[in-house]
TrEMBL record:
Transmembrane segments: 12-32, 38-61, 82-105, 117-137, 149-168, 188-206
Keyword Transmembrane helix: yes
Alphabetically ordered keywords of this record: Membrane, Transmembrane, Transmembrane helix
Organism annotation: Blautia obeum
Protein name per the record: ABC-2 transporter permease
Pfam families from the UniProt entry: ABC2_membrane_5
Length: 218
């Protein structure tokens, strides 16, 4: 698995100029806006998941997967290496972007460090949940098809969320205060809930990805 991770890191290194140009957009926003730390951290984290998942597409070029499967690695190890790379890269980028965001806060004094930490943690957890959906899609479909499926999935999620919000608003107007317990939840309870959801998504995603790889012929 170490060899697979080294290979992916080299792929990222080769395309580093392109990735740095994308990150530079967020950095410009951070410098230009006194309250831009929250956006910059979230932007950097979400860009990082595209970078790491993109290595799956590179593996398929010029029959690359056929060569990889001749090496002393299993399909299960290949899947595990992709999750380790993606989650590890997201954490690394979140730490670096958070440090830059903290420096900006110290200079401007326009934002609370605690708010940035909460926003960064939330963005990291949500990005990991998105990764749990992106990796199986990339493994099952080609790059173009996986993008279409992912966009469709996101659209469905937003549609369901919008419908749920409308139903909740109707419930509040009809029955008074609605679900009062939601207002009593503290920050750490919400954080624990998000982490639990992420871990469940991760467990399911890994199993699905392993099944997808086992069924593939190279």
């Amino acid at each position: 698995m170490r060899g697979l991770l080294m290979k992916d890191l080299e792929l990222i290194k080769i395309n580093m100029r392109i990735y740095l140009a994308v990150f530079l957009i967020g950095l410009i926003y951070l410098v230009a806006h006194e309250n831009g730390s929250t956006f910059f951290v979230a932007y950097a984290i979400f860009v990082s998941i595209g970078v790491s998942v993109g290595t799956i597409s590179y593996d398929g070029y010029h029959h690359g997967m056929k060569f990889l499967m001749t090496l002393p690695v299993t399909k299960k190890q290949y899947v595990q290496s992709k999750y380790l790379l993606s989650f590890g890269f997201a954490v690394l980028v979140s730490v670096i972007s958070l440090l830059l965001g903290m420096i900006r806060i110290q200079i401007s004094g326009k934002q609370e460090a605690e708010d940035l930490l909460i926003s960064a943690g939330t963005a990291l957890v949500i990005s990991c949940i998105i990764l749990c959906g992106m990796i199986p899609l990339r493994l099952k479909y080609e790059a173009e098809k996986s993008r279409i499926v992912m966009v469709a999935a996101v659209a469905v999620i937003f549609l369901v969320a919008a419908v749920c919000k409308e139903l909740y608003d109707v419930y509040q107007k009809s029955f008074g205060k609605g679900l009062q317990f939601l207002d009593t939840l503290s920050g750490w309870q919400i954080a624990v809930g998000l982490i639990v959801v992420m871990m469940i998504c991760l467990a399911v995603s890994v199993k699905v990805s392993e099944r997808i790889m086992e069924k593939k012929e190279f």
